[in-house]
Amino acid sequence: MRMQRSLAYYEQAFQHRAREESVRRELLRRRAVERARARRLEHQRRQGKIRFVLLVLLLTATALAVTVAMFQALQLVAG
């Protein structure tokens, strides 16, 4: 009879540990998903910032080029 109790005890302990490990694995998986999402959002934010700076620089360069070309054309016409 003692043997059956100890087997039942070990089986119950095994099942308890299996449930705990299952919960732990799920928690680790969720944390990994959250980290991946945070990395993806940070990457998108950085890329957006770089693209915005490049856009501003390109627009500024275009405005300068058009201004220079306009004054050169004006100088040709007036001069």
Task: Quickly list its features.
mainly alpha, 1 helix, rod-shaped, transmembrane helix, transmembrane, membrane
Taking pLDDT < 50 over at least 5 consecutive residues as the criterion, the unreliable ranges are: none
| Helix and strand sequence | H
The overall average pLDDT, rounded, is 94
- Work out the helicity level: over 70%
Q: Kindly name the structural category.
A: mainly alpha
Major sheet characteristics: none
The DSSP helix count reads 1
Percent of residues in β-strands: under 5%
Tell me the number of strands: 0
Q: First CA to last CA: what distance?
A: 116 Å
CA-based gyration radius: 34 Å
Shape verdict = rod-shaped
Keywords: Membrane, Transmembrane, Transmembrane helix
Transmembrane segments: 52-74
